[in-house]
Amino acid sequence: MFLKLIFFHNVNVGDAMESGKPGPVQVVLVQKEQHSFELEEKALASILLQDHIRDLDVVVVSVAGAFRKGKSFILDFMLRYLYSQKEGGHSNWLGDPEEPLTGFSWRGGSDPETTGIQIWSDVFTVEKPGGKKVAVILMDTQGAFDSQSTVKDCATIFALSTMTSSVQIYNLSQNIQEDDLQQLQLFTEYGRLAMDEISQKPFQNLNVVSIENLNFVRSHFYRCFLKSFRNCFSDIAGEFKEQLQALIPYVLNPSKLMEKEINGSKVTCRGLLEYFKAYIKIYQGEDLPHPKSMLQATAEANNLAAAASAKDIYYNSMEKVCGGEKPYMSPDILEEKHCEFRQLALDQFKKTKKMGGKDFSFRYQQELEAEIKELYENFCRHNGSKNVFSTLRTPAVLFTVIVILYIASGLTGFIGLEIVAQLFNCMVGLLLIALLTWGYIRYSGQYRELGGAIDFCAAYVLEQVSSHIGNSTQAAVRDAVVGRPPMDKKTQ
């Protein structure tokens, strides 16, 4: 588990603001009465699985701390900075002093504005020095220690945000207290177990950021915000502006962005979804999970993320050769490509650093192989549907047999075998009825069992003819190889 933790001293702010579009999306919902947590998986997946960012390594900047201390407020300035960089970047990223603050919702009062965990709907693509692109996500968390939250609620939200973020800003309104550090106890114990498991240090850097002359700044804030704050940057004390201009670029500077890492491997947006799903499960009980459970959940998510990445490699590779509007491919060639891409996906899964050991990972490898098999069967069906003859196989077989029987009827009638000719005519009539019935079934969707029986009979006839032709061809080739011409009836 790799995390950069920043302690940031902020002050309380007031008045409400309305978030616009794009905006914050609830990804972890708190059931206050039951004190339980629910993952909004569909909402989270809609953000993390976007095609242009799903495979990018992710940087998750999270702000946590006590309620009503300005967590959402500081995130709004991060949004200003990121949108400024997205538009080309300029030194005055703070914008017009009279421009209202927009973004994550915040307000004054005794009730928390943010419940659970929210992330910003826009995922920012940032290019780091060297040309590598990463996905930057901003995450806001429910304020801790409000009147409605239990100690478990606070610890759960803090742990979830910490375990899923790469940069955690711990927002405080005063000097660091013992209670603040106690919130880290469960997570640091998990880190100790992780260190024993993977023989690496569990965390990367701990940075403590404070504002000088805090009391002076705080007094300005009380005067500016509590009575006359107009939701504009111009109402903020000058000392605090200076600290913002130093802190925000420090955290979000492309050269300093820290990707999320677990077990020494960087986590993609798609992988982050798996970690959210795994972590939320262990916090559903009445008690806080044991650190070993947290480590187990991380190992499971780690393997699931590796399997999902390998599965995508197989799917994307197959999609390029036979998916969508690609022309029909020979089944033999399709199987050859399947074997090639299957091995490519398995090699990717095996070489990815994973937690839990080989025996633990083997189960996920088996599940990956089963999913690849299922995907291959779907690709086979999709490819087969492009074969015109396959689609029209039944009517083609019926029509061909009707023509052959009609010609045979004429010939036998010409040489005087009327009984045989009439028999052929009866068969032609029955096959015409079968052909018309098949067409009606396909058009109406009724009597599907009868339609299936007609398809089966046509397929059986085609299989017998193909087998006979194949055997005859093999015999002819074999005779040609040994130097003997095919024997005719006179020779026999």
TrEMBL record:
<dbReference type="GO" id="GO:0042802">
    <property type="term" value="F:identical protein binding"/>
</dbReference>
<keyword id="KW-0256">Endoplasmic reticulum</keyword>
<dbReference type="InterPro" id="IPR003191">
    <property type="entry name" value="Guanylate-bd/ATL_C"/>
</dbReference>
<keyword id="KW-0547">Nucleotide-binding</keyword>
<keyword id="KW-1133">Transmembrane helix</keyword>
<dbReference type="InterPro" id="IPR036543">
    <property type="entry name" value="Guanylate-bd_C_sf"/>
</dbReference>
<dbReference type="InterPro" id="IPR027417">
    <property type="entry name" value="P-loop_NTPase"/>
</dbReference>
<dbReference type="InterPro" id="IPR015894">
    <property type="entry name" value="Guanylate-bd_N"/>
</dbReference>
<protein>
    <submittedName>
        <fullName>Atlastin GTPase 3</fullName>
    </submittedName>
</protein>
<dbReference type="Pfam" id="PF02841">
    <property type="entry name" value="GBP_C"/>
</dbReference>
<dbReference type="GO" id="GO:0005525">
    <property type="term" value="F:GTP binding"/>
</dbReference>
<feature type="transmembrane region" description="Helical">
    <location>
        <begin position="396"/>
        <end position="416"/>
    </location>
</feature>
<dbReference type="InterPro" id="IPR030386">
    <property type="entry name" value="G_GB1_RHD3_dom"/>
</dbReference>
<keyword id="KW-0342">GTP-binding</keyword>
<feature type="domain" description="GB1/RHD3-type G">
    <location>
        <begin position="55"/>
        <end position="206"/>
    </location>
</feature>
<comment type="similarity">
    <text>Belongs to the TRAFAC class dynamin-like GTPase superfamily. GB1/RHD3 GTPase family.</text>
</comment>
<dbReference type="GO" id="GO:0016320">
    <property type="term" value="P:endoplasmic reticulum membrane fusion"/>
</dbReference>
<keyword id="KW-0460">Magnesium</keyword>
<keyword id="KW-0472">Membrane</keyword>
<dbReference type="GO" id="GO:0071346">
    <property type="term" value="P:cellular response to type II interferon"/>
</dbReference>
<keyword id="KW-0378">Hydrolase</keyword>
<dbReference type="Pfam" id="PF02263">
    <property type="entry name" value="GBP"/>
</dbReference>
<dbReference type="GO" id="GO:0140523">
    <property type="term" value="F:GTPase-dependent fusogenic activity"/>
</dbReference>
<dbReference type="GO" id="GO:1990809">
    <property type="term" value="P:endoplasmic reticulum tubular network membrane organization"/>
</dbReference>
<dbReference type="GO" id="GO:0098826">
    <property type="term" value="C:endoplasmic reticulum tubular network membrane"/>
</dbReference>
<feature type="transmembrane region" description="Helical">
    <location>
        <begin position="422"/>
        <end position="441"/>
    </location>
</feature>
<keyword id="KW-0812">Transmembrane</keyword>
